[in-house]
Amino acid sequence: MFRRTLATAVTAVAALTLVSCGDDTPAASSPSSNSSSTASLSGTINVFAAASLTGTFTQLGKDFEAAHPGVKVVFNFAGSSALAEQINQGAPADVFASAAPKNMDQVTDKGTPTTFVKNELEIAVPKGNPGKITGLKDFTDKNRKIALCAAEVPCGAAADKVFEAAGLTPQPDTLEKDVKAALTKVSLDEVDAALVYKTDVLAAKNKVEGIEFPEAAKAINEYPIATLTNSKNPNTAKSFVDYVLSAQGTKVLTDAGFEAP
């Protein structure tokens, strides 16, 4: 009788021990799982991004590094056409964010691109608008100094569209390699006006003023992003792209004036 009672007690204690362990296991494994996920991201990724993304992507890169210690995000900002050419020539890139689908399509080893923001053009003039620019028609005046982006870069291609829609022939004094270069001409008061993106005007609001024009709606740029198939660090590259597409990433971009896709 004593042995039977003792056996019953031992069985009960063992059952309680198993239940207790079962209750504790999920709570203990959850942080471990998260740590493992975070630890799996490491090393450097090279992100090639359109010049108009300089401010926002620099911030996103810092945020991503803070969330994943051990990860380093290195950026190459330039005109999308130049970036596409560099990638096709073998430049080490893990992620490409273009200011237009055309330049993304030129990249031979891209993954599956996703449109993550939109942008449109705006007239930028120096503070005080010394050239008395009122609209797109002023870009046809040979007496005014005008800057445009070169036709092969997205801001230049978009400019061509808006001038065609308006039935105007611009008279630029300079064609710049990317939108930041065109904006710099305005901020240094070297030209009376330039066509840049709305986001660039917002970013440089202490140095330039913006003038909206209706034809801008005819040339809204879609920005695609993709992890490149030849990436040396594909897991971290994909995680960065996912972060750009996340609610947090979208907020950084829309706060800077980009439109959600």
Quick take:
By secondary structure, this protein is an alpha/beta fold.
Which segments are poorly predicted (pLDDT under 50) over 5 or more consecutive residues? 1-37
Mean pLDDT: 88
SSE series = HEHEHEHEEEHEHEHEEHH
Biggest sheet architecture: 5 strands, mixed
Helix residue percentage: 40-55%
Number of helices: 9
The shape is elongated
The proportion of strand residues reads 15-25%
Number of strands: 10
Strand order of the largest sheet: 2-1-3-10-4
What is the gyration radius calculated from CA atoms? 27 Å
Terminus-to-terminus distance: 77 Å
Summing up helix and strand content along with how strands pair, one would put the structural category as alpha/beta
Task: Give the tags.
elongated; 5-stranded mixed beta sheet; 44% helix; alpha/beta
Task: Provide a descriptive summary of the structure in words.
The chain is an alpha/beta fold and 261 residues long. Helix content is 44%, strand content 21%. The chain contains 9 helices and 10 strands. The protein has a 5-stranded mixed sheet with strand order 2-1-3-10-4. Strands 7-6-8-5-9 form a 5-stranded mixed sheet. Residues 1-37 have low confidence and may be disordered.
